[in-house]
Write a structure and sequence with these properties.
The protein has three domains: about 90 residues, Immunoglobulin-like (Sandwich); about 130 residues, Nitrogenase molybdenum iron protein domain (Rossmann fold, 3-Layer(aba) Sandwich); about 160 residues, Nitrogenase molybdenum iron protein domain (Rossmann fold). Helix content is about 35%, strand content about 20%. Strands 1, 4, 6, 7, 9 and 10 form a six-stranded mixed sheet that branches. Strands 15, 16, 17, 18, 19 and 20 form a six-stranded mixed sheet that branches. Helix 9 packs parallel to helix 14.
């Protein structure tokens, strides 16, 4: 009987368990979408797929959803930078140093105008350089007007400008404030040779006052007709007739520096004129003078000046490549006579003439004396006994005749050997301080060493030079007149 009740109890328990299990299974199948779906992956750990909202676009992989910005997310606000611009008026591309120093970095002309993009509220300090150097020695831009403050807190787009003028430290060491190049349209020049630099730089038409030397040079008058009747308020020493000069109303005056020129300079400065003193006794200083003159006259003139310098350097290198190999013992002694109908006025050491004599393979017989236009005695000349005599100026042929007809000169080596020669004469005396030195050194080198310089065609070089640097086409007759120092025809 006990076993009967035991079996009945077990059966009831089994029925209850089955019923409960069935109920649970039924409840799980009522809403199958509510159960998370597990997507199997090849990895050992399964990664649940993201739950997608009704407006989401399903992504192929979890990685692609990492760069997707949900449309329901708020848009972030990014603050834009504000431009702060620096400009500098009055500069040109000859400027070659820092123009502005800022707390954000230094700025040169090549970066101008320069813009900083900074966040609103940024504090920026800056300083415009008071002097900006240039590619031309001793020429600079000077700060003439600048902002009243050297700092700014940036809250809005801003442009900060400074204005620069121009200046030169001239040969005397004087700081000279210059007019703007565009304002230089009336030039006075008391240095006769320097007038050729003005013409070469394209400023011949701006010359309004010159020297009595230039007005009487035939070829100068031919290539620049106004020269023949131009005002000449300077004497041969460069001293001005100040009333006449002021009437010429120049924007700038060029003059040659010398220890004795200070009174003339002071007279012009006291009259309110802008005066630039220049000088050279060697070729490096000559090329500096050419380049400085070009810079003063403006970018176009500077381009022409640099073209001349390039030509001169090529000529110089071709000549010295030969003459530097000639032993000193084989170099002839040369006496250079200034001319002007006086055979005893010569050029000594510390002169441009001494420079080209040595470059062209000669030795200056007048080395014992110093300076240009030094008066010596016949006894000194006889003691020097030069092997070659070269004579400058427009009256060179007359001086040559004086020497050859004077018995006292008859024993001088140059006279005995037929080596008394006149320098060519073009727009200026080739032997003296003008841009035609580029032709002179070729002529002298070929005169002294014709076989070594047989490749130099002086007629061709002269035509090329005049066409390139003066813009004038020479005729054959004019070339012959230049090379032989005779009066050139008008065509």
């Amino acid at each position: 009987m006990k076993n009967k009740y035991l079996y009945l109890t077990i059966g009831i328990i089994i029925i209850l368990v089955i019923s409960i299990a069935a109920y649970i299974d039924l409840s799980n199948t009522v809403n199958p979408a509510s159960k998370p779906v597990v997507t199997p992956t090849p990895s050992a750990v399964s990664t649940p797929a993201p739950t997608l909202s009704a407006t989401s676009t399903p992504a192929a992989t979890a990685a692609s959803t990492a760069t997707t910005t949900p449309t329901s997310s708020p848009t972030s606000t990014v603050s834009s930078n504000i431009p702060l611009t620096f400009t500098a008026s009055g500069l040109d591309n000859s400027a070659n140093s820092t123009v502005i120093m800022t707390s954000e970095g230094n700025v040169s002309y090549s970066n101008m105008p320069f813009t900083l993009d900074v966040a609103s509220g940024t504090f920026v300090s800056f300083v415009f350089q008071s002097n900006v150097s240039t590619v031309v020695p001793n020429c600079l831009f000077t700060l003439s007007s600048a902002p009243s403050t050297n700092s700014i807190t940036v809250t809005a787009s801003t442009t900060i400008n400074a204005t620069y003028g121009r200046a030169i430290i001239d040969y005397s060491g004087t700081f000279v404030q210059l007019p703007a190049a565009s304002q230089i349209n009336r030039i006075a020049d008391s240095w006769a040779a320097h007038n050729t630099i003005l013409v070469m730089c394209g400023a011949g038409s701006k010359i309004v006052a010159t020297t009595p030397v230039d007005t009487t040079i035939t070829l100068f008058n031919i290539i620049l007709p106004p020269m023949a009747t131009m005002s000449d308020p300077f004497d041969t020493s460069g001293n001005p007739n100040i009333e006449q000069l002021l009437a010429d109303n120049p924007n700038i005056v060029f003059m040659s520096w010398s220890a004795s020129s200070t009174p003339a300079y002071q007279t012009m400065v006291n009259a309110g004129l802008c005066v630039v003193r220049m000088y050279f006794a060697n070729f490096p200083d000559m090329l500096n003078t050419v380049q400085q003159t070009g810079w003063i006259l403006g970018p176009s003139a500077l381009t022409k000046a640099n073209a001349y310098i390039s030509y001169f350097n090529g000529v110089y290198n071709n000549i010295t490549a030969v003459t530097s190999q000639i032993p000193n013992s084989q170099k002839p002694t040369i006496l250079h006579i200034v001319g002007n109908n006086n055979p005893l006025v010569v050029d000594g050491n510390n002169t441009l003439i001494d420079t080209w004599i040595n470059i062209c393979g000669g030795v200056n017989a007048a080395e014992p004396v110093s300076g240009n236009g030094v008066t010596v005695t016949l006894e000194q000349v006889l003691a020097w006994n030069p092997q070659v005599i070269l004579i400058g100026s427009a009256t060179a042929t007359s001086t040559q005749s004086t020497i050859l007809s004077n018995p006292q000169w008859s024993q001088v080596s140059a006279v005995v050997n037929g080596k008394v020669i006149v320098n060519p004469m073009g727009v200026f005396d080739w032997s003296r301080y003008s841009v035609e030195e580029a032709l002179n050194i070729q002529w002298v080198a070929k005169t002294l060493y014709p076989s070594q310089f047989s490749n130099i065609d002086m007629a061709a070089q002269t035509k090329y030079f005049y066409q390139t640097f003066y813009g004038y086409t020479l005729s054959d007759d004019q070339v012959n007149a230049i090379l032989n120092n005779t009066t050139p025809p008008s065509t």
